Amino acid sequence: xxxxxxxxxxxxxxxxxxxxxxxxxxxxxxxxxxxxxxxxxxxxxxxxxxxxxxxxxxxxxxxxxxxxxxxxxxxxxxxxxxxxxxxxxxxxxxxxxxxxxxxxxxxxxxxxxxxxxxxxxxxxxxxxxxxxxxxxxxxxxxxxxxxxxxxxxxxxxxxxxxxxxxxxxxxxxxxxxxxxxxxxxxxxxxxxxxxxxxxxxxxxxxxxxxxxxxxxxxxxxxxxxxxxxxxxxx
Length: 234
Prior knowledge:
mainly alpha, Rossmann fold, 2 domains, 3-stranded parallel β-sheet, globular
């Protein structure tokens, strides 16, 4: 996704480490925007061009049997939820059934007995904030299952609703006060109350930045927590 490619490449690097430690070969397609930012701003025609590019870029991998795994919930779930009605094509419908959040993929592989990761115990508490797209279109079950692969890690999900950022909404001056009011309802108080050694986990880029800006705490993507627990020596 665009966020991992250009803003937080360390997350994509962590994902590659984890997948390779599990014995998977990682192929990174040519970067294309999924169209989510354009859709959120109502730029329908411009978004259609991006969605068509994305489908064209990913379909050859699907035809070869590759699972399509993503890191940013808003991007990945746009392909799952928005592409079929937008494009009304068989390729879009096929793609929508083949894309997986990285936690969904890892949880699926672990359940099937195909995943073995060298993970060190982590006797800490993790406070998880679920992304709105993920909570409404998918679930956070895969995130919980993936974090629980780490021995001794205690995971609690905050019943926080939206973080208030909602893509670019909270960055816009006219929405700032409302954005912070939403964040201060449950999420930020829970973060501020968490001990310093509590891991803060949020998979959405906008969610992480809302927490970092609103509570001055560092936040990790699920895959970074797994990468930190690897004992592969890298």
